[in-house]
Write a structure and sequence with these properties.
mainly beta
């Protein structure tokens, strides 16, 4: 009998593991800018960060075919947090969003496209055109230059994992013009993180210029 016990136990574990992964989850996120950041003394390379959006999906365009469904504000549970951030005078909410998605293992997980905040396209026109040698899957030509842009990927299984591949853009005034005679420059700051999270628990991702509140909860 003992020689059957271990294989049967493994099969039971695999069954429950697959059942957990097949569940649906609600992902709610608040992205907010730190207005009074004291990090203005950082070195400004003003290098454009090339984003590879890969196979990311937009929640507004065909996401439902993949089981991703954008949710309306009546589903939000973090509205009080968003209001407090806006009223603080220290932060500015760029985007408050939520969506329903299936629990997907890392190899099947799909990144969600995020873009929010100001559009700097008119002021920094040269930034809206991709260089000729950019990959077609990266930033397309004449693209909006969003204050926040990139992707978020949620991997759901026995543990929760959130991967951010974002760029936050901030305008800096120069006391004296640079080599090109510009008095204002737009600097890119990559925010590439990986965090392990607990279900139904509020988590915070910190950056000198950007904060992210994340809560993932079961929809079942």
């Amino acid at each position: 009998m003992n020689y059957l016990t271990k294989p049967c136990f493994i099969l039971i574990l695999l069954f429950f593991s697959q059942a957990a992964i097949s569940k649906d989850y609600i992902v709610e996120m608040i992205f907010f800018a730190n207005i009074n950041s004291d990090a203005d003394s950082v070195h400004l390379s003003n290098q454009r960060v090339v984003q590879n959006l890969g196979d990311s999906i937009s929640l507004n365009q065909g996401a439902q075919s993949n089981g991703f469904i954008p949710l309306t504000s009546d589903i939000f549970t973090l509205s009080g947090k968003a209001d407090s951030l806006n009223k603080s005078g220290k932060y500015r909410v760029l985007k408050h969003m939520a969506w329903l998605q299936p629990g997907l293992a890392r190899e099947d997980a799909i990144a969600v496209r995020i873009h929010a905040g100001k559009n700097y396209k008119d002021e920094f026109k040269e930034r809206s055109f991709a260089d000729a040698d950019f990959d077609d899957r990266r930033i397309p030509t004449n693209h909006p230059v969003n204050e926040l842009d990139g992707t978020v990927k949620v991997v759901l299984g026995r543990f929760l994992h959130v991967y951010t591949d974002l760029v936050y853009r901030k305008v800096f005034n120069l006391s004296s013009g640079d080599a090109l005679g510009r008095s204002r420059v737009l600097a890119d700051f990559p925010i590439k993180t990986h965090r392990k999270m607990r279900s139904s628990t509020l988590h915070y991702i910190d950056h000198p210029y950007l904060g992210i509140l994340v809560e993932i909860r079961s929809a079942n």
